[in-house]
Design a protein that fits this description.
The protein is of the alpha+beta class. Helices cover 20% and strands 38% of the residues. The protein has 1 helix and 6 strands. A 6-stranded antiparallel beta barrel has the order 1-2-3-4-5-6. Strand 1 and strand 2 form a beta hairpin. The longest helix has 20 residues. It is globular and about 35 Å long.
Length: 102
């Protein structure tokens, strides 16, 4: 899956293209780095779903640009089971913290 950002001043969205060239805009929920895996990660959700009660969050690893942003290039799938468990734990912590703020 390839990825490109909207404008440089609006780095909270990316446009993903599938193998068939279909494009969809995604909002960036948040990014984080893992010292254990030496990678950066991003959580995304479809922009069309941002007002829904439930959203499907997707996670990828990525190579940040010189500013540390998800700017251009490839998003990489998370294929290692232990790495995926770590990523899910970070998301669970984020969503639990978010629910406590309500």
């Amino acid at each position: 899956m390839s990825e490109k950002s909207g404008s440089n001043k609006d780095l909270d969205e990316v446009i993903l293209s599938d193998d068939k060239g279909n494009q969809e805009t995604y909002k960036i929920l948040f990014t984080f780095e893992s010292d254990d895996y030496g990678k950066s990660y991003v959580f995304l959700y479809p922009k069309n779903d941002e007002d829904s009660d439930e959203i499907e969050v997707q996670a990828f690893s990525f190579t940040p640009d010189e500013n540390g942003d998800v700017d251009a290039g490839e998003l990489n799938p998370i294929e290692d089971a232990e790495e995926w468990d770590m990523v899910q734990e970070v998301l669970n912590t984020f969503t639990n913290d978010d629910e406590q703020d309500i």
